[in-house]
Amino acid sequence: MKKTIIFSLALLVLFFNISLSSAQMTDALPEIPGWINGELRKTEFDTVSGKRGFWLERDYRNSAGVPFHAVWMEGSGDKGWTPPEKEISADDGPLGTGASYKTLSVKGEKAILEHHPVTGYSLSVKAGKKGTLTLESIIATEEEITAAAEVLVGRIN
Hints:
Elements: H1 2-28, E1 36-37, E2 41-47, E3 50-61, E4 67-75, E5 89-91, E6 100-106, E7 109-116, E8 120-127, E9 131-137, H2 142-156
Antiparallel strand pairs: 1-3, 2-3, 3-4, 4-9, 5-6, 6-7, 7-8, 8-9
């Protein structure tokens, strides 16, 4: 009888942890109404010393059909990354490949935007103390990737 009760409690705790983990995942890269929402993929940061967070990926297409690849890192995976405090607007110089960088604000959160003529835009934003969102698109404009980040950060926060 005791073994049955202990086994039942263990299953209940396991079910509760799985449910809680799934809720955190869907909060991080939610489905956006009116967008095409790709499959949510999860990678755990599982080490010998324990679980250190997770990494989520989802491909989106906004209502205009512009594709975005979204990555969410939560836990020690982003290693405390934060955008720079001072404002930046620069390029990689005469020996570079034409990339430009600048800081901006997305829904009140500091972000950094990179543009490269070959690979397109990449925008990274720290969403409060929760985690870091990175959006990438080879064809989006600066306005489109910023607007997509605002939609996602608004849903995450």
